[in-house]
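Input record (one chain):
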Amino acid sequence: MNHSEFKLTWDQLRERSRIHAKLTETEKHDAVLAFTNLKHIFKDEFFDIKHPLFEFFIDRAGWRNAWAIWFATVLKSISSHSDFPHLVCDLHAALVLFEEKLLQPVRPQR
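The corresponding structure, as predicted from the sequence alone:
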């Protein structure tokens, strides 16, 4: 598979949730709503195959849906905070921040 051509979308994640065999109907509904909320927050530009959360979202395990429900709920609960746009920006930029962290020299502990 050519990873540069691989795409993941919120719509695909919602559809996976709708048909997931190991989720209850309530979990399916909540996961679809969570992915809808995450799409509203992050828009469609969120997915990059190198982003630290990409592997998390690509995994089809049922518990990943539960985490997405939690994540969307937490973000929605703090969305009125004045620093929320900065948080969203930082989460978008997690790839850059993660790579920069990897490039920083390790300082010995005293």
